[in-house]
Automatic annotation (TrEMBL):
Protein name per UniProt: Peptidyl-prolyl cis-trans isomerase
Enzyme Commission number(s) from the entry: 5.2.1.8
Occurrences of domain PPIase cyclophilin-type (ranges): 1-59
GO biological process terms on file: protein folding
Domain of life: Bacteria
Length: 59
């Protein structure tokens, strides 16, 4: 599990390393490196997905 702490509350992400081990490890490496720090998440569908990646409004 990975938890993103945002100004609108926490986002908890469940990973499935048994189904996608390379993808999960890549994602976790990005998390450990702080890649998502101060990233804007512009679309969240509870229980389904989040989209983000912008570092300033309008991206």
């Amino acid at each position: 599990m990975v938890t993103f702490h945002t100004n609108h509350g926490d986002i908890v992400i469940k990973t499935f390393a048994d189904k996608a081990p390379v993808t999960v490890e890549n994602f976790l490496n990005y998390c450990r490196a702080g890649f998502y720090d101060n990233t804007i998440f512009h679309r969240v569908i509870n229980g389904f997905m989040i989209q983000g990646g912008g570092f300033e409004p309008g991206m």
